[in-house]
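User: I'm curious whether this sequence folds into something compact or stays loose and floppy. Could you predict its structure so I can see for myself?
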Amino acid sequence: MAMNRRNFLKVSAGASGSLMVSITLPGCAGIQTGYESDTGEWRPDAWLELTADDEVFFTLARVEMGQGTYTGLTTLIAEELEIQPERITPRFAPVAPEYRNPLYKLQLTGGSTSVATSWEPLRTAGAEARQMLVMAAARVWNVEATECRASEGRVVHPNGIDSMAYGQLVELAAKEVLRGDIALKPQSEWKYIGKQRGKLDARAKSTGTAVYGIDVDLPDMVYGVVSRPPRSGGRVRDFNADQVRAMTGVLDVFEIERGVAVVADKYWRARKAQDALKIDWDFSDAVSLSTGDVFDSYRAAADDDPGESERSEGSFASAMEEGDRVVEAEYAQPYLAHATLEPMNATAWYREDGMEVWAPTQAPDLGRIAAARVTNLGPDDITINTTFLGGGFGRRLTQDYIEEAAAVAYRVGRPVKVIWSREEDTRHDLYRPAMLHRMKASLSGAELTGWHHQIVGPQILDWYVRNAAPAQYPWAPKFMYDTLGSVGLMAEGIATPKDFSAIEGAIEYPYRVSNVDIRHTHTDPGIPITWWRSVGFSHNGFAVETFMDELAHEAGEDPYQFRRRLIGHEPRHLEVLDRVVRLADWQSPVPEGRARGLALFRSFGTYVAQVVEAGIENGAIRVYKVTCSVDCGQVVNPRIVEDQIEGGILFGLTAALYGEITLENGEVQQSNFHDYPLMRQYERPEVLVDIVASSESPTGVGEPGVPPVIPALGNALFALNGKRQRSLPLRANA
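Assistant: Here's the prediction. I'll summarize afterward.
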């Protein structure tokens, strides 16, 4: 019987209401707070631990992958606790409900949400602990707490001379009871928030003492590698296990769900044995598409299905009839790999009472589900130790590499580190989806009267819900995992959050147009996909801002002035736009052989405008300068904001210039940096980042630098040679 999502929910709610009720129950795990007399440790909440030895530990619920959470979130605690950030030791959080990201109901780091979701909770935690310490000291001195103050990790007596260190007060502070809300410090009293400070993890990373996943070393550890089918959906039919098992150092060779695993006493012996593997693959259910087939299928889907309406205002059909002219364009973007500096890896150790995993993961609770799937263990029997991440960009939200390590360790019974080669990391990535955009607009004179945008491509949740749904309900038995995933997809946009991955950045563009029609044609060719830095904003940004530039030229207007007329109702957009053109000296001439391009975009709550100055040099595109104005609300650490925006710009330029994963008969053609290159140091442009002083709540900065730089570069190339490029990557000889 055919059934849509709404009917499914009606039936399931009536026929099996117990399931619908039970999946709302919270998990059983929790963080114990209070004072431990044996150790002299006090945990006032899930984030802080203060000891009698005057140490302060901060449990970091968001992972550190270079985006600055290690420093930024510690600064929030330090500000209200009245202690130098350098005196706080961050520790990566275990899996527990207290550490879930409130936006996603999962313990994951992504979506540029770390500071935004932690801004108030962490400051409150620090303020409450500070107040309890002050109250304890006041009780010792027999004075009013309001007469005491905290400063630099001590509570100071009203006489201004006597003081006590926090460590001396932890046992007494644990007995204090707060009554009412504790006021947070006003901005005028901030010592650390908003100040230009270095990163707390810089020394460990520059001296090699920071432990990434690939650095984990355990006693009696062995090494595993996995040969995966070269085409997604392929299966193992047969392989020469006995021959490979006889090689020096090889401990075992066996099939797992994702391919054939080789385990050896040394990494290179495992690799050498892998080279000797001869696997007969069954491709009967495998993907066989080539890149051209993907886009042919997109165009066919767009022709057959106008798509689900995502935003509709006025009447675009009437605007087309009444306008002077209609402008149309089609934009295409390829699959993109993540190319993290640290390839995928995880270490797992299975024992009868459970499994311990060490991994650079963006979602440790999903990691537990991945490990549980391939063992006889439940999630509560699995401990995830999160390490530093050598880049994430969304790739480490998907836990396939943990699933592999767990499956191998479950068979071997010893600590096993599974490492992906760079070639494996490129060819078996889960990619940023290829997307197609069909745009139409109506103009009356220079006025934009109608806007139509048809987005064609898949949704990421379809690929992600497999482990995400069970992670929300870790108490559920494993036989329900696939059911929970199916329920999550059926209920998407009704009982579960809507998947905006295909449409974000398209439906909330800032331009004032009376007649709007935005649609998504959902089609999925079966190529594995996941989140990629800035997600849907990345491809929609290119389509929206390139088309807007085309419309400005069609209307005979300067691209800056054309945009400015359409965003007069958006003061924050207007400010970053005006600031960036002023800083880039937009109206002044450029050196011969160069041109400027402009783009404006809001993503993850952050407003960004960019001007790119570029040209063609020695037959290649050369980016000389990128000027960026950003409004991300209140800033915790200006240096981190600058670093992240600049990093996003370089990440986006890499995609614009080089990013392209191509398929031939289902097989990825790229393998390493020689054919999937990154921007090199000598290519790096001058980057100027201008931060708007704001009193708004903070928003994210890890991703918003990416979306506008790609169309801004394309717009600059059009201004240079009059040739409009509507597909990526951009070409010097287009």
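Summary: The radius of gyration is 27 Å. The longest helix spans residues 114-141.
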